[in-house]
# Entry
Amino acid sequence: MKHVYVFGAGASAASANTPLGSELVWNYPSNCGQVPPINNGVPDLSEENESFKNFSSFLKLVTTIYPELNSLPQNWDNRGMWVFIPQVEKKHYVDEMLEILHLKRNNQGVELVRKLIFEHLVESSIGNPNQLYKKFISEVLKNSQQQISIISFNFDFLLHEDFEKDVYFDYLLEFNWIDDNRQRTYAKNQPFNLIKPNGSLDWGICPSCNRLYLYFHHMFKNFYDNKRCSDCGSQIQPFIIIPHERYGNIIEPLWLSAANDLKVADKVIIIGYSFPDYDKRVSNFFAKSLNSYAKLEIVNYCEHEKDKAREKNTILAKYNRIFPGLRSEIDIHLDGFEGYLNRYVDGNAYERGG
Ligand SMILES: [Zn+2]
# Structure
């Protein structure tokens, strides 16, 4: 039996309060800002301006891509007491921005957006207990009777934050350098494959010579600022992959491994991932790779009972569209990552008892 888990932003948001796709970078100040002190009756923003200086540059960058948002930098500068920017009508996915910047050959812009993705994810998860991924490791991975592999579309490294408790992961990449702290446990003792086709914040890449670095997962927001390639001296960046970017030879084996796993999977459990319309590449890839007899279990979260039937229909319609040839049933649960883990634990207890 082979089970494949697919994780999207919904899983990390449920476990560690990280932002969902459309909130990534945009909600950084509202998630991580603090109420500024008042000096002589006026809010003193100096500290905050310092911590969000990259965000301020991001807003200027946004106006070069979406002219309709050109009031944002001014709103930010005049925000006074408000630690968050005034509600933006349409938040553009940063994935989309990265692609546009890449096509415009704006490398500095790409670097800035990557930096903000890193800052927002790292800052928003600091101090969070990350219970659900921990439970996933202790209940699902540790006791599994099945062969399991994981495909994660998340940049964060929350799943293996707890990796030193006899469950280990293998990213299936050839790193040129691995941090000493990481070396002890990385890919040891029958590791689970953790395939991250979009990249990962603990992977550093040298944009000049493509050397790959694997860092320890204790990271802080300025982590990459002083990281230089040991070979050519260039500034290392967190490895966040833009569709169509070069790096094909590094990333292609990951897609290949994911395809091989999906071809032999008996069951695929998709948690907090919605096959977003802007990323056709992923839908097409799954449609092509998934064997038609695999059982699909979709786990999403829907808060209100009254919305559940409609939500289920929407999901079902989408899956029927993406996987027209699927022969087995599609099981949809709207109780979220936590609900899934509770059901999993109950199911195991039932099996042991009966
Ligand atoms: Zn280099």
Summary: The mean pLDDT is 90. Residues 195 and 257 are 8 Å apart (CA to CA).
